[in-house]
Amino acid sequence: MSEPKKKRSQSRKGKHRSHQAMTGPALMSCADCKSPKVSHQVCPTCGMYDGKQAIIIATKKKK
User: Strands 48-49 and 36-38, how do they pair?
Assistant: First the structure.
């Protein structure tokens, strides 16, 4: 495999990497409890998915 003939300058390197920024997950609000959740996954707050109870969330008991 060939090696680059010239050094890529800092400005050109920055322009090249400008499209590689990390983005956060696309959040949507839960239809049941309105808390933010990742799309197409069970809500971590209430345990609902597609209008059905998918998992049971254990809540901490207050004293």
Answer: unpaired
Q: Which two tokens mark 37? A: 């959740």
By C-alpha distance, which of 9, 54, 6 is closest to 30?
A: 54
Phi, psi (deg, nearest 5) at residue 11: -70, -40
pLDDT in tens, 6-52: 999 999 999 999 999 999 999 999 998 999 999 999 999 999 999 89
Task: Provide φ and ψ at 46, rounded to 5°.
Answer: -110, -15
- Say if residues 35 and 45 touch (Cβ distance below 8 Å): yes
Residue 41, number of CB atoms within 10 A of its CB = 10
